Amino acid sequence: MVRAAAQIFIDDDQGYLAWQAAHPDLYVINAKRSLNPNNLVLHRTTCRTVSGTPTRGSQWTGPYVKICGTRSDLDAYPTARPCRICLGS
Fold first, then answer.
1. Closest to 74 (Cα-Cα) out of 51, 47, 45
2. Helix count (H) and strand count (E) of the chain?
């Protein structure tokens, strides 16, 4: 079985939202554009903080980068901390 690596969305809300709709069971790392390893947060794709309508501003991938994939795809970002809302810690 061939598995795709994580997908990264920068300045591509349309692509991010299409990926999100197609993968409701996967995960998203939300990162500031600097990709500072201390500011990475892991979310379920369906978390209200990374889906629906942006709570800050009008874009998902303007001020932030979305790194999307399976949990094992996202293991490449070990400093990502779990979201307190959707992953409970």
1. 45
2. 2, 5
Chain mean pLDDT for the chain: 90
Sorted by where each begins, the domain ranges of the chain are 7-82
Of 58, 55, 61, 56, give the one whose Cα is nearest residue 20. Answer: 61
Which residues touch 25 (CB under 8 Å, ≥6 apart)? 45
Tell me how far CA of residue 78 lies from CA of 8, 17, 20, 88, in angstroms: 16, 24, 22, 18
Prediction pTM value: 0.90
Check residue 62 and give its pLDDT: 85
Residue ranges with strand state E in the chain: 7-9, 27-32, 41-44, 64-69, 81-82
Q: Using CA atoms in the order 25, 21, 69, 59, what is the torsion angle rounded to 10 degrees?
A: -130
What stretches in the chain show pLDDT beneath 70? 1-4, 89
Structural tokens at position 42: 């892991």
